[in-house]
Write a structure and sequence with these properties.
Layout: H1 7-10, E1 13-19, E2 22-28, H2 34-41, E3 60-63, E4 66-69, E5 82-84, H3 97-104, H4 114-127, H5 133-139, H6 151-164, H7 190-195, E6 211-212, E7 215-216, E8 222-227, H8 230-233, E9 238-242, E10 268-273, H9 279-289, E11 292-296, H10 310-320
Parallel strand pairs: 1-5
Antiparallel strand pairs: 1-2, 3-4, 3-5, 6-10, 7-10, 8-11, 9-10
Helix pairs in contact: 3-6
Length: 326
């Protein structure tokens, strides 16, 4: 892996593309992702960062009309192309049919996956205004949701497609009225969520705010013998690097054999910077800027109670009032 100080990895480049129909030009590092630029440089935080590896769909945007995972797409590949985000789908005064039916049918819960889900659904309806249930499920297969169970999402996409085709749909009469008791109503925080305007912790920004990210050990269980923070501290924008030495008070002990761990423990080292971190940057930090000496250990020694017969483990757990995993 090349040094982080080489010109190729540190010199910003100008990138021009269209975002929701508006021409934008940004200065970005070659390894910056489209998601990094949308959220950090353009302030479009409606597109969420979930897994950071292109698996969950929370970061879905449309690139020339096609859904892409913006968390793994280099921004340089967006040069001269059209990018559509949740902020360009509809407005509070004029919701897109997808946004409207997500609200009417209760397809919005926590709202974190909603922007990506809506953008994938828009790409589907743009290319196929009358999709079957199986086609809707296939189009949303890359968007994970932990709240809804997907049924209402599929129903909402089908209803939006019907409205876009000009069909008149029968809406339930109990969705309005002053008395909500015993009725199905649109959730009060639903509109900001379908617009991508609802703020989650990672969407907050304050003047002078610092950004921390953990660099974790590649080993499930290990003794950290030394951490060299000098190279990390020499990087522009880095304010400090926190290790266990910065934690006041007594240091804990662990392991099933009650053996004290060396300190710092094998869990993490936390660099703090004036700039947000990307997943790729964290990999570079781990590999290059925070040299660490570790002594890997067996994460589940033979004496572990979790490897004993369940009958013995259950009795021991009950006696020690500890939680166990089958």
């Amino acid at each position: 892996m090349s040094e982080l100080t080489t010109q190729d990895s540190t010199q910003s480049r100008s990138v021009s593309f269209f975002v929701n129909g508006v021409p934008r030009t940004v200065s970005a590092l070659p390894d910056a992702t489209l998601l990094d630029v949308l959220r950090t440089d353009l302030g479009l935080t409606g597109t969420k960062k979930g897994c950071g590896g292109g698996e969950c769909g929370a970061c879905t945007v449309l690139l020339d009309g096609n859904p892409v995972s913006s968390c793994i797409l280099p921004v340089l590949k967006a040069e001269g192309r059209r990018v559509e985000t949740i902020e360009g789908l509809g407005t509070r005064g004029e919701l897109h049919p997808l946004q409207s039916w997500f609200l009417k049918l209760g397809a919005v819960h926590c709202g974190f996956c909603t922007p990506g889900m809506l953008m994938s659904a828009k790409a589907l309806l743009d290319s196929n205004p009358n999709p079957s249930t199986d086609q809707i499920k296939a189009a949303l297969a890359g968007n994970l949701c932990r709240c809804t169970g997907y049924a209402k999402i599929v129903q909402a996409v089908a209803a939006a497609g019907a409205e876009l085709r000009g069909e008149r749909l029968q809406e339930r009469a109990d969705r309005t009225g002053d008395n909500p008791i015993g009725k199905s109503v649109i959730r009060v925080d639903g509109v900001p969520k379908v617009l991508g305007a609802a703020q989650f912790a990672a969407d907050l920004s304050r003047p002078g705010m610092l950004h921390a990210a953990m660099v974790v050990s590649p080993h499930a269980h290990a003794l950290i013998q030394a951490v060299d923070t000098s190279r990390a501290l020499s990087r522009p924008g880095v304010v400090t690097v926190l290790t266990a030495d910065d934690v006041p008070g007594a240091k804990p002990t662990a392991s099933l054999q009650k053996t004290p761990l060396s300190w710092p423990p094998a869990r993490s080292v936390t660099p703090v910077s004036r700039l947000p971190w990307s997943s790729r940057k964290m990999n570079e930090w781990r590999a290059q800027l925070l040299p660490t000496s570790r002594s890997p250990m067996n994460p589940s020694p033979p004496s572990s109670i979790l490897l004993r017969p369940w009958s013995q483990t259950r009795s021991r757990c009950m006696m020690e009032a500890t939680s166990c995993v089958t």
